[in-house]
Amino acid sequence: MPLFWKPYKSDVTNFIEALKAKKPTLEDEQRAGRALLWDRALDRSQQADWADAKVAQQPYVYQTKPGA
User: Fold this and answer.
1) pLDDT(1) > 60
2) Which member of 2, 20, 35, 46 has the lowest number of beta carbons within 10 Å of its beta carbon?
């Protein structure tokens, strides 16, 4: 290893670190935004109803059914 070796940081890493330094609340805002859409409690009975209502798709969608 060379005497003056320093670890490499990509431009993207430098950009993200600068962005976080400018706006320290960024990660908390991202977590709050994620909680609005994704972090929700699931209703298992509704999921079972959706699974039961699913209609099987034929292997080739554009093929006409025999006798139709």
Assistant:
1) no
2) 2
